[in-house]
Write a structure and sequence with these properties.
This protein is an alpha+beta fold and 617 residues long. It has three domains: 101 residues, Immunoglobulin-like (Sandwich), CATH 2.60.40; 229 residues, 3-Layer(aba) Sandwich (Rossmann fold), CATH 3.40.50.300; 224 residues, no CATH class. The chain contains 24 helices and 16 strands. The strands form three sheets. It has an eight-stranded antiparallel beta sheet with strand order 6-5-2-3-4-1-8-7. Helix 8 packs across helix 9, helix 15 crosses helix 19 and helix 19 packs antiparallel against helix 21. The longest helix is centred in the C-terminal third of the chain and has 27 residues. The C terminus is likely disordered. The chain binds guanosine-5'-diphosphate and magnesium ion. This is G domain-containing protein.
Length: 617
């Protein structure tokens, strides 16, 4: 059957980061279908049940508002070819990036009954090949981590948010729509997973704001839908320097705190004392002037006592609560650990508050909290393990009855789940594309090889030096792009060689997690968070060449056959995934020393296009 004769069946359309797009219209054979804005998130979507069936070109019109133009509205029409859509599906989705809008079509695969039970009840492993990633269910329940940040203008709220959620270059135009106000949810194009409510507190002349804030929190608190609730609150106060006559808070905030337990109830709330660097510097300045000898530990202790007396005690008195979660932070680079502390504390409090939900299993909120933050890779690892354990790990290791193709499908959804939990800014979808999956499969397949036969890292380095070849160009040389065939090969080795198949699942999950962890480090310190193939290839090459990869593979190969199919296998996998790439000192150093120049160039995945030719000569 040729592709063009196939019918494309669309069950849903979504426009992400829709920003200034006000509305959209899908036109199929002259019939219009409206794509509507969803409540308060900047997402437009429409569901089609039964699905829309298309065989010929169809189009989507975007209606935008253009604030700075004389003509307020602009209309843009984008055409789609059903056969192009069908041949570029990833996990039953087709993505197209158009300027700053990503269009996602959910497609029912051609071999699937249009509205069969498989699409509705999402079976664990279906023989028809349709598996649903667990993250899809999580995100359906709660697509964004919703946080309220309160504090006077200038205390450093925006700086904190930018660093915690990896939107370092966020300028006002990244926010939609415009003015900050507690009722206006703010989203960033650079991070789909969080939504911010920003409230400036209760400055003079804004006393009636207390009423608005209370009403807002009450509405969110009593909302029945978990995605509309507030998942965390940061109450931000700049550490007051007493000798400059600074005050911790204004009168309105005092009133708010007196009623805190009534107003906020069980919403995880963290007291954040900002600009901690100014406090420690002030202490040091005084001590230098008085010629006192001191260590860093003395400064920390003094600062702690100061915080206790001038920040924590007054808040305990106002709230009548002795156990308040708090942290002192600074947005300055050398205090990065404080930002990590805030992120971990937030995740911990959210996890305590949102553990189980009635009837539907674990709450999606801790997972989406980990996805949203871009500071603590450890949280992504932990939550990807939790997501894995929801369904697929158990299925794979319990020796579920899956035949041939579903092993591929299963690896496919595990890949999607892990990538989604890491939530990189990847508008081109590189991490979900077939090339990346193939390269990862290439890494996993070295499980078979004897380590001595591979290119030793030292040789590889000689190669770079002699030919002046960038690390990114190494990838096609060391790993075949045709690894897809290898998946099928080992997927065929079903039941009787079960431990082998399970070992490969273990290696896939571990290798992918390590590569993503390296990508995290490569992007964390950069302002430009957008993933490029250069960054991804460098991470694969570094990991592939490393002793860490050899050790992981050796460990997996040495697991006794007896653990497979048993209960210990999940625990073993968890422990191996949790031990980070940074345990390999050499690899850690290499990753940290990569320069921005080394990540550039060679934007093609295809080996024949790359410098590989040069090496061959
Ligand atoms: N010293 C110091 N200055 C900061 C810190 N965080 C933010 N600032 C500065 O404080 C000012 C206000 O920051 P901003 O994040 O816009 O505060 P917001 O009004 O609460 O959103 C800016 O000039 C920041 O550069 C910090 O941790 N230490
Ligand atoms: Mg601000």
């Amino acid at each position: 059957m040729s592709k063009s004769s196939q019918v494309l069946r669309i069950s849903r359309i979504e426009l992400q980061s829709a920003g200034k797009v006000e509305s959209a219209q899908l036109t199929i054979r002259g019939s219009p279908y409206e794509v509507q804005k969803q409540q308060d998130d900047n997402i437009l979507s429409a569901k089609f049940s039964p699905p829309l069936e298309v065989q010929e070109l169809f189009s989507l019109s975007l209606n935008r508002t253009r604030a700075l133009c004389i003509q307020k509205w602009s209309r843009k029409k984008i055409s789609f070819d059903p056969s192009e859509v069908l041949s570029n599906l990833e996990d039953h989705q087709f993505r197209k990036v158009q300027g700053n809008v990503t269009i996602v079509l959910d497609v029912i695969p051609p071999n699937q009954p249009p509205d069969g039970p498989a699409t509705r009840c999402a079976p664990l492993l279906s023989h028809s090949g349709l598996l649903t990633p667990s993250t899809e269910e999580v995100l359906k329940q709660c697509p964004r981590f919703r946080i309220l940040v309160m504090g006077k203008t200038g205390v450093g709220k925006t700086s904190l948010i930018n660093s915690a959620f990896g939107i370092n270059d966020a300028r006002p135009e990244h926010y939609e729509p415009g003015e900050a106000n507690i009722d206006t949810p703010l989203c960033s194009k650079l991070n789909d997973r969080f939504v911010l409510h920003d409230s400036k507190g209760f400055e003079a002349g804004e006393e009636d704001n207390l009423y608005n804030v209370k009403a807002f929190i009450e509405r969110r608190k009593t909302h029945g839908d978990v995605k509309e609730q507030l998942h965390a609150v940061w109450l931000a106060f700049q550490v007051p320097l007493e000798r400059f006559g600074q005050r911790l808070m204004e009168v309105g905030m005092e009133e708010f705190l007196q009623e805190k337990s009534n107003i906020l109830g069980d919403i995880p709330t963290i007291f954040v004392f900002t600009k901690y660097d100014m406090l420690t510097e002030d202490i040091e300045r005084r001590w230098i002037l008085s010629r006192r000898n001191y260590t860093q530990a003395d400064v920390d202790l003094e600062a702690d006592q100061y915080l206790q007396q001038h920040c924590i005690q007054p808040i305990q008195d106002l709230t009548k609560q002795s156990d308040i979660p708090y942290i002192a932070v600074s947005s300055k680079g050398r205090y990065a650990r404080t930002l990590k502390g805030l992120t971990e504390l937030t995740h911990q409090k959210v996890s305590e508050s949102f553990a189980q939900q009635h009837g539907t299993g674990p709450s999606p909120v801790p997972t989406v909290t980990a996805m949203a933050q871009r500071v603590v890779p450890w949280l992504n690892i932990e939550e990807s393990i939790n997501v894995g354990k929801r369904k697929y790990w158990t299925a794979v290791f319990a020796g579920a009855d899956f035949s041939g193709n579903t092993i591929e499908d299963c690896i496919g959804v595990i890949h999607t789940d892990i990538v989604k939990v890491w939530n990189f800014y990847d508008p081109s979808g590189f991490l979900l594309c077939g090339h990346f999956r193939d390269f990862m499969m290439g890494v996993v397949n070295t499980l078979d090889k004897s380590p001595t036969k591979e290119i030793a890292p030292n040789n590889a380095e000689l190669v770079f030096r002699r030919y002046g070849i960038a690390l990114v160009a190494m990838l096609p040389i060391i790993l075949p792009l045709s690894a897809g065939a290898a998946v099928i090969k080992w997927a065929r080795a079903t039941y009787e060689r079960m431990p082998d198949v399970q070992r490969r699942f273990m290696a896939y999950i571990t290798d992918l997690t390590h590569v993503l962890d390296i990508i995290f480090t490569l992007t964390a310190s950069r302002d430009e968070k957008k993933l490029t193939t250069g960054i991804i290839k460098t991470a694969i090459v570094l990991y592939h060449m490393s002793q860490r990869r050899r050790d992981v593979h050796t460990k997996i190969k040495e697991f006794p056959v007896a653990i497979f199919g048993g209960r210990d296998v999940n625990a073993e996998l968890e422990s191996i995934v949790k031990s980070r790439y940074t345990t390999d000192g050499d690899l850690k150093e290499r990753v940290e020393n990569i320069t921005p120049e080394e990540l550039e160039g060679d934007e093609d995945w295809d080996p024949s296009q790359s410098h590989g030719d040069k090496l061959a000569k």
